[in-house]
């Protein structure tokens, strides 16, 4: 058991690059984690980390050992967690990351039903539009789109991630009709700045017939959130390129209308992400299956499709 604890200290320290952060996640002191790793090194007869006052890096032997024990450690931990679940039901703290507005609009309303089915699970939900490191930051799952898929993480599609052009009737009134993408260059654009990079991406429009054209809107202003862009467009201040999940409410209410309704931006999918394990924790499996079920039952894939 002492060796198992030392391996856990080693793996956590390697994942986060710090004895102090590993100690915080393991509810130990940094000194205890460092001592445990040192005992493991002495038992193995090799140095696993290169230590300095500012950094903690794996040696070649450390890299090799991490690759051999990491997945097995997670499998054992998940087996223990599943066995310890309340009367065999999924239990424990469920740490999930999701976009702020998307989570509030489409995931939080599902919480009541989820807890009725799985009362022994304690949600720990984080709302952030930036991509998180599932493994290093200790998340069980994340919901979002446009993320790079790191090694050891899998994704299950929830809906397409389409973006559409919208404007208010007030803005469009008195202006020449927009009939093709090239007409956009004469109009004020409300563009989205990536929360990951801080940059405004160069988007490509796709038609229902799979034609392509660059987006030529003039950047009148930029926002980092599609909901804010919708609210700004509703004031008649320009044409916004926004994600469909945020546009559907405004479109249904008639506050905004689509510009070039036969054209959209295909930005991949909105998916639910989780770490790939041979034995997935019961709480994570329950959440993933529940979210996929609910999105399918509510037809959100169809609602969020621009075609």
Structure in a nutshell:
With 307 residues, this protein is α/β, with parallel strands linked by helices. The protein has helices at 2-16, 19-26, 30-44, 60-83, 100-107, 111-117, 169-172, 226-233, 244-253, 282-297, 300-303, and strands at residues 49-51, 56-58, 92-98, 121-127, 141-145, 153-167, 188-192, 204-207, 212-214, 218-223, 239-243, 257-259, 263-275.
What do you see in this structure?
Keywords: DNA-binding, Transcription, Transcription regulation. This is LysR family transcriptional regulator. One of its GO terms (molecular function) is DNA-binding transcription factor activity. By secondary structure, the chain is an alpha/beta fold. It is 39% helix and 26% strand. The protein has helices at residues 2-16, 19-26, 30-44, 60-83, 100-107, 111-117, 169-172, 226-233, 244-253, 282-297, 300-303; strands at residues 49-51, 56-58, 92-98, 121-127, 141-145, 153-167, 188-192, 204-207, 212-214, 218-223, 239-243, 257-259, 263-275. Strands 3, 4, 5, 6, 7, 8, 9, 10, 11, 12 and 13 form an 11-stranded mixed β-sheet that branches. Helix 1 packs across helix 2 (19-26), helix 1 (2-16) crosses helix 3 (30-44) and helix 1 (2-16) crosses helix 4. The radius of gyration is 24 Å and the shape is elongated.
**Unreliable parts:** none
Largest sheet: 11 strands, mixed
Order of helices and strands: HHHEEHEHHEEEHEEEEHEHEEHH
How many structural domains are formed by the residues?
3
Looking at the structure, the CATH topology of the largest domain is D-Maltodextrin-Binding Protein, domain 2
What structural category do the secondary elements indicate?
A: alpha/beta
Quickly give the CATH architecture of the largest domain: 3-Layer(aba) Sandwich
CATH level 1 name of the largest domain = Alpha Beta
Radius of gyration of CA atoms, rounded to a whole number: 24 Å
Overall helicity: 25-40%
